[in-house]
Write a structure and sequence with these properties.
With 347 residues, this protein is an all-alpha fold. It has 14 helices and no strands. Helix 6 packs across helix 9, helix 7 packs antiparallel against helix 8 and helix 12 packs antiparallel against helix 13.
């Protein structure tokens, strides 16, 4: 895929084909995987017949998953196309630098819910609803802490890193950086909800959400991108993520799975977590700026000191904020159990 994108840029110089090659190559890759699996494992095949009702349910789930994947893939594609259309290729290159740093951190963070996907699915299938809801709340709390720390690191280290890497001429203003950080926070806020949505098999119930989100994102991109440029594109994505990705997506999970639990209470807790992340990020940023103003070191040492501050300060602040939180006790148990399992494996 990447080789095809490079060849298109060099030979044709067409950025729209460069963007379009991603879904095309993904489709071809899936076909190749399917054929390879059939050749390598010919002994694994389906036999017997299933009822029409089961077939209908499978088709529904597959359609729901396909729509979900299309929505996720189209989000950045729409953003990139609108930016290149309004602002040109230089702006999309600058935007992409920031975007791929953000997504690299998110992909690393997403290893957490992805690694427990099978156990959550097993728990949803076998355990009572109350236990799964308590696990959901505890995991959401822990994940919010970790993602909040990552958000704080981005707020404090984004611009110093970009200055070291590409220089001042290819940097976005601080307003865009803060919007990227909010974008990142909302992406993370949906991860645990999506984990339980997938575990409960609620893809078909979210079919309208993903379609509406894609259309709304495209319309808002056109409108806000025209008036506010890159910031408008980011605001458009943030709005759709907040209202449709987190809001509507969370409603589906609570309406069809956590039926007797309060969705409004969950939204209030979610907003409280986001407010805590914003507070910690702001305080850490102010402290980093204060330290910079005192020592006035070169760019590399400034980046290193900021990195050290970001390791210590945000976690101390989160510990202070959450010391009496109702999920803190279970979070400690999960942390020490995980730590002990790692230690025993090494021994």
């Amino acid at each position: 895929m990447y080789l095809s994108q490079i060849l298109i840029l060099f030979l044709l110089g067409n950025f729209y084909l460069f963007i379009a090659i991603y879904p095309i190559c993904t489709f071809i890759e899936n076909l190749c995987i399917n054929k390879s699996a059939s050749k390598l494992y010919p002994d694994l095949f389906c036999k017997g017949k299933i009822s029409e009702d089961v077939k209908g349910q499978i088709r529904q789930h597959v359609k729901g998953i396909a729509l979900q994947k299309i929505c996720s893939s189209s989000r950045n594609s729409f953003d990139s196309i609108i930016i290149s259309m309004y602002l040109g290729l230089t702006s999309i290159a600058i935007y992409s630098n920031y975007y791929y740093i953000m997504m690299s951190v998110h992909e690393f963070l997403y290893l957490i819910p992805n690694s427990i996907r099978a156990s959550v699915g097993n728990s949803v299938a076998k355990e009572p609803l109350d236990k799964n809801y308590n696990d959901f709340c505890s995991m959401y709390f822990i994940y919010s802490w970790i993602s909040g720390w990552c958000t704080t690191c981005l707020v404090c280290l984004y611009q110093p890193f970009m200055e070291l890497w590409v220089g001042n001429s290819l940097m976005l203003p601080i307003s865009s950086v803060l919007l990227f950080c909010l974008y990142f926070t909302l992406l993370n806020a949906a991860d645990i909800v999506a984990l339980y949505k997938d575990a409960a098999g609620l893809w078909w119930y979210g079919r309208y959400r993903v379609i509406i989100e894609a259309i709304a994102n495209l319309i808002l991109n056109f409108t806000l991108g025209f008036y506010f440029g890159i910031n408008g594109i980011l605001i458009a994505t943030i709005i759709t993520l907040l209202l449709l990705g987190n809001g509507y997506g969370g409603y589906i999970v609570f309406h069809y799975y956590f039926k007797d639990k309060s969705f409004v209470k969950f939204i209030c807790e979610q907003m409280a977590y986001i407010l805590a992340i914003a507070t910690v990020a702001l305080v850490t940023m102010c402290l980093c700026n204060f330290v910079d103003s005192i020592f006035r070191l070169n760019k590399i040492y400034t980046f290193i000191i900021r990195g050290l501050n970001c390791i210590i300060i945000p976690n101390l602040l989160f510990l202070l904020l959450y010391s009496k939180h109702k999920h803190m006790k279970q979070a400690k148990v999960l942390f020490f159990n995980s730590f002990n399992s790692v230690v025993h494996k090494r021994k």
